[in-house]
Amino acid sequence: MAELPALFAEPHRRYDPLRDEWVLVSPGRTNRPWQGGEERLQVEQRPPFDPACYLCPGNTRANGETNPAYATTYVFTNDFAALRPATSDAVLEDGLLRAEGEQGTCRVICFSPRHDLTLAGMDPADVRRVIDLWAAQTAELGARYRWVQVFENRGEAMGASNPHPHGQVWAGTALPTGIAREDASQRAYHARIGRQLLADVAAQETGGPRVVDENEDWLVLVPFWAVWPFEVLVVPKRSFARMPDLDDAARDALAAILGATLRRYDALFGVPFPYSLGWHGAPFCDDADEDAWRLHGHAYPPLLRSATVRKFMVGYELLAEAQRDVTPEDAAARLRAVGSGR
Ligand code: H2U
Ligand code: ZN
What we know:
Layout: E1 12-16, E2 21-25, E3 74-77, E4 91-94, E5 97-100, E6 104-110, H1 124-142, E7 147-154, E8 166-172, H2 177-193, H3 197-205, E9 211-214, E10 218-221, E11 232-236, H4 248-269, E12 275-280, E13 296-300, H5 315-319, E14 322-324, H6 328-338
Parallel strand pairs: 2-14
Antiparallel strand pairs: 1-2, 3-6, 4-5, 6-8, 7-8, 7-12, 9-10, 10-11, 11-13, 12-13
Bound molecules: 5,6-dihydrouridine-5'-monophosphate and zinc ion (ZN).
């Protein structure tokens, strides 16, 4: 591997071309003494079925509905949905004060009937089933809504309410702020250069110091501009605008590399690694630019230097700009080194 620029050993800023923003990188700061809070360790043995779990097959949820005896995956409308289909579409404009009604829907996706499994521990064939479901949900809701956000919050540190393997999908009529930024960046880059922004990122990063893993169809890397310590970007090597566009081969290859990446996470500090993981593809707007967009996944884990010390987005980050201590190159090297075995 080529030598890293000397700049990377000193405080410097890096540019995120997807979100059009900067991050401050301050290498070496993790050596500072730490007398602050530590996360509680979440290593508990879970049974395959928990009679008190509201996601296990056959159990009753908070609103009194009963889950079917599902054998693979199960989707239901969130009983405490943040978006609902039949809400006001009124618009308020009062000087600087603006508001608009937002319609949508929120669903919960159970990845497995097994309470004790995680995506990292599931067989590739079962992860493939989850990918197929993510794709189907995206296609179905994309017919009605402009944005479909598929995601998983895992672990108490990320606010997950239940250890049963599950994710969520939220769909809404507006283009959320972060997506609008990614949309504008990819459109502008494609219009200017004639290639996809993420195709060029993949081409430039392949074989480099920030790659964590790759297979025939996918590249997993710690982005040059990563904000979270062990953040990764999952990019297909071929051009797919949205998850439903993935062909059979790309879905199988994704099941393999996603499981492997999440096992690297778990191996890093020897604990079930908390994270938020989600997918971004071309929006379903009438004027969507499918040529500019490339589907990709973001994983944002909060842990910084052990199972118990997390990164906080506070002070300078909240008031000025995101900042990180471990360089993306160091993070990638550590994720490569831990391996992805079961
Ligand atoms: P999280 O673990 O990421 O919070 O997702 C679980 C979701 O499940 C959460 O959004 C919903 C919560 O609203 N839920 C139900 O829909 N029914 C229940 O009986 C409990 C939780
Ligand atoms: Zn359960």
